[in-house]
Amino acid sequence: MKFGLRLRGGLLATLIMFGAPVLAPVGAAFVSSSALAQTVQSISVEGNRRVELETIRSYFKPGPGGRLDQGAIADGLKALIETGLFQDVRINRGAGGQIVVSVVENPVIGRIAFEGNKKIKDEQLTLEIQSKARGTFSRAMVQSDTLRIAEIYRRSGRYDVRVTPEVIEQPNNRVDLVFTVEEGAKTGVKSIEFVGNSAFSSYRLRDVIKTHETNLLSFLGSGDVYDPDRVEADRDLIRRFYLKNGFADVQVVAALTEYDPEKKGFNVTFKIEEGSQYRVGSIDFRSSIPNFDPSSMRNYSRVNVGSLYNVESVEKSVEEMQIEASRRGYAFAVVRPGGDRNFEAHTVSVVFNIDEGPRTYIERINLRGNTRTRDYVIRREFDVSEGDAYNRALVDRAERRLKNLDYFKSVKITTEPGSSSDRVILLVDMEEKSTGDFSVSGGYSTTDGALAEVSVSERNLLGRGLFAKASVTYGQYARGYSLSFVEPYLLDYRVALGLDLYQREQKSNSYISYGTKTLGFSPRLGFSLREDLSLQVRYSIYRQEITLPSYLSNCNNVVGSAAFNPSPAFSAASGIPLDASTNGLGCYSDGEASLPVRKELANGKTLTSALGYTLTYNTLDNNKNPTDGLLVDFRQDFAGVGGDVSYLKTVVDAKYYTPLVSDIVGLVRLQGGMLNKMGSDLRMLDHFQMGPNLVRGFAPNGIGPRDLNPFGTQDALGGTKYWGASLELQMPFWFLPKEVGLKGAVYADAGGLFDYQGPTTWSVTNEMTTTRNSGCTPSTVNPNSAGTCTGLVYDNGNVVRSSVGVGLIWASPFGPLRFDYAVPLTKGKSDRTQEFRFGGGTSF
């Protein structure tokens, strides 16, 4: 049945609160005040089934002398009603003036059900409402639950939702509670406008906020769903963006939202007052703490004179200075930044004031909301603990670290007074989210062909903060699997331990004549030296072997062997008579792999054992879609810690992004590498292989030294040195909605790969010994004897390769996709070109 329950006790309580001289049930005879002067024991109770008699009596508190007066009974009646345990409470007069409390208990909820909900699961709604199965039924609570369910739907973008509660009576004073939901259509954001912005275009500001306009691909995400909390957070993101770029007076005055019934969506307008752009005019350091040298904090400042005033740099400076002061024994030091504006010169004089703060200690750290994540996983992100001096900079850093874990939807750290004036309690409120991923990925590229991957990962394994991932890849030219595990806090230190086990198989294709099989294991340790600087050390051990189709390795000069039977056409062309004594001399008539490849094949499986490290400097504003900042990777690997090979490989890769004009972003990329022999000879497989990863417009393995034997496969041999430089301009398509994620690029590349140092000679039985074998010379005139290949002919010129081209970049919901068309301008005589290239992938 629908709601129709009455609560008559509320009316009686109202009469008492307004000074009614007597107490009586509605419509009953009055009771004199003197008759109510009873004791608690003289109160009788009627109608109670689950609630104990003494429990009800306990709500009536006697006054002086142990007697109940009119006020005590009124308070007791009000308290009983507020418990929510009863749908009706009445006070009557009994025999001899005895007080009789008649109650009608609220029913017990047998079960709670949801009907009509498809977008939000029953389990989620059950967690959100206050009414619980086997709990007491309360009309007020059910009304609150109804509003809560509607609010959940509105935050998911469904503003036309209708929620109707229904109560179904059951025997023994029990009820079933059913919420019927009419979800309605999704209500999205139809347009986003900016008013008052002149320094930055609306197109650029749409990159800053989290809310997006509805488009054809919106069903793959939720950024277009109207969420008032997210719009309010966008106001702060816009403000922070302006403050980061020197606009110290900026104000985001309002975020106006209006529902458009015709479009069935919201129009959002941000009103901005930019103000002037400021630069840093001067930096000063002051201290009121005795014996504290403020100038010693200069090294910890991220602010530079002449640079744009950046609030984020000021905040990071404050944090670093405050932490350093704490390390020096000034646990209560507080760094307060100040700034005086010069409105005519548009400069800000920044002053860092270092003062003695209040002597406050952390009494407790209370965690709330982590139902799955273990407490110690959260507490280890704090650099402070119970009993330490309260340091706001360290608390803010802990909050930022917790957010970066990506275990929680929201994290907020607040304080409340402790047991004394010099104690505070830290309250850490969190809302957990799903941390497991199952993905099926697919893609196609001109290099690897069709490719599919299935992976399962968990970022917070068992609630212990561990990362684990298993993936299987199967493609046209590449196959394999990998297992990864990361412990982010090794032995309770902020050092990440990673373990990787992988197996890869690269099959021969149009770019390489041979295939490779690799099985490896690599443990690694990661250190965060600073927020923008990290170090990784690793050890790698892997076994590798080459595979070849039989027709590329069938050379045999044993007389009488049937391994090769030269055709008459080949014999006529070569002038070699077709008889048994010449078996094997025509090995190259059907193509033959290059000497270094066949040598690797003959060597069998090779074990490589290497130590290495990577130093990364990262100041990018966005790792996925950068527009400003520098990213530098410096890597070195030393092979020779056991194993069959030894070398030192050094690689550097630097990318610099800078915004130019009209939302155009410039990218400058410099890269280089060097391979040094350390003892044993270098294998061809250890060399660098380059193509479009260095200069676009060239095929994979299309650049650098190459076997020139016209009768062979002319494999790319690689080089020990390479360099590359690229200049690229990325620009949006202003005529398309921002949310489509398309932008164009124009670029120019230059680079070179040279200095092959792999095998060029090879003495082997049954190798043919004619000049057709890349200059192999016979050891004797007898063609049946083994020869020595001494003449591997290859192109090793240090030629500058260059190209220009255009590209289409799509940050699609299926993953990043890129199309490039490049035209080589200069190239080596044996290089191979590929003007069009496509690559990308997807997760769904």
**How far from one another are the termini?**
44 Å
**Rg from Cα:** 39 Å
Shape: elongated
| Major sheet description | 16 strands, antiparallel
Which structural class fits the helix and strand makeup?
A: mainly beta
The quaternary structure here is: single chain
Describe the structure.
A hairpin with a 2-residue loop joins strand 21 (515-530) and strand 22 (533-547). Helix content is 15%, strand content 39%. The chain has a 16-stranded antiparallel β-sheet with strand order 16-17-18-19-20-21-22-23-24-25-26-28-29-33-34-35. 27% of the residues are buried. The chain is mainly beta and 844 residues long.
Summary tags:
844 residues, 35 strands, 16-stranded antiparallel β-sheet, 12 helices, mainly beta, three-stranded mixed β-sheet, elongated, 15% helix
Describe what is shown at a glance.
With about 850 residues, the protein is mainly β. The chain is built from 12 helices and 35 strands.
Q: How are the secondary structure elements laid out?
A:
Elements: H1 9-17, E1 43-46, H2 53-57, H3 70-82, E2 86-93, E3 99-105, E4 108-115, H4 122-128, H5 139-155, E5 162-170, E6 174-182, E7 188-195, H6 202-208, H7 228-244, E8 251-260, E9 265-273, E10 279-287, H8 311-327, E11 333-342, E12 347-356, E13 361-368, H9 375-379, H10 392-404, E14 408-417, E15 423-432, E16 436-445, E17 449-461, E18 466-475, E19 478-487, E20 495-506, E21 515-530, E22 533-547, H11 568-574, H12 595-603, E23 606-618, E24 629-639, E25 647-659, E26 665-677, E27 706-707, E28 721-732, E29 742-754, E30 762-764, E31 787-789, E32 794-795, E33 801-812, E34 815-826, E35 836-840
Parallel strand pairs: 1-3, 4-6, 7-9, 10-12, 13-15
Antiparallel strand pairs: 2-3, 5-6, 8-9, 11-12, 14-15, 16-17, 17-18, 18-19, 19-20, 20-21, 21-22, 22-23, 23-24, 24-25, 25-26, 26-28, 27-32, 28-29, 29-33, 30-31, 33-34, 34-35
